[in-house]
Amino acid sequence: MRIVGGRLRGRTLAAPKSQAIRPTADRLRESLFNILVHAYGDPVTDARVLDLFAGTGALGLEALSRGAQHVTFIESDPLVAAAIRSTLAELKSERGEVLERDAYTWLAGAPAAFDIVFLDPPFAQGGREDLCKLLETRGWLAPGAFIYLEHAAHEAAPALPPAWTPWREMRAGDVHALVAHRQAP
């Protein structure tokens, strides 16, 4: 796994070996960030980013490389969270924070508005529609936020909250990805 763009481009990232981790492919990450930049200028620079179900942290680390102001990584597995912390230390980045928490429990807490959210729970876990509703109704999204959502290619995309406009879809192997844009109230 490597960072595909920004000031850390080409950096190889280590991740613990685990069947539960499914890193977002380099090609999909590159497409995602190219889509955001070409359609909306540069929404990543200075953005507050949430990497929910962070896993390897590849999406959040990519955002940091491309100038995000701050990335909050939420990861429940202690070994995986430690690996992200180690990567942040190796990269000498103080703009990332790793919280070792269950995503649902964390989303029930006091909200902070994020400009970009990466929502990539384990495929077998399900609950994507519930997570989308929590993000929308609990105040976790800034006006005009972008939400990136992955699900198994053989499954239907989850229903999105009415304020979210599905904007672009991508597919890579067994992964179907969707970029949604939250309309400003």
- What characterizes the major β-sheet? 7 strands, mixed
Task: Please give the order of strands in the largest beta sheet.
Answer: 3-2-1-4-5-7-6
Low-confidence stretches: none
Helix content: 25-40%
Oligomer: single chain
N-to-C span:
38 Å
Attribute tags:
single chain, 185 residues, alpha/beta, Rossmann fold, 7-stranded mixed β-sheet, 26% strand
Walkthrough of the structure:
The chain is an alpha/beta fold and 185 residues long. The protein has a single domain, classed as Vaccinia Virus protein VP39 (Rossmann fold, 3-Layer(aba) Sandwich), CATH 3.40.50.150. A seven-stranded mixed beta sheet has the order 3-2-1-4-5-7-6, sandwiched between helices. The model has no long low-confidence stretch (mean pLDDT 85). Helix 2 links the parallel strand 1 (48-52) and strand 2 (70-74). It has helices at 26-40, 58-65, 78-90, 103-107, 128-137, and strands at 48-52, 70-74, 96-99, 114-119, 141-152, 164-172, 175-182. 37% of the residues are buried.
Give the topology.
Elements: H1 26-40, E1 48-52, H2 58-65, E2 70-74, H3 78-90, E3 96-99, H4 103-107, E4 114-119, H5 128-137, E5 141-152, E6 164-172, E7 175-182
Parallel strand pairs: 1-2, 1-4, 2-3, 4-5
Antiparallel strand pairs: 5-7, 6-7
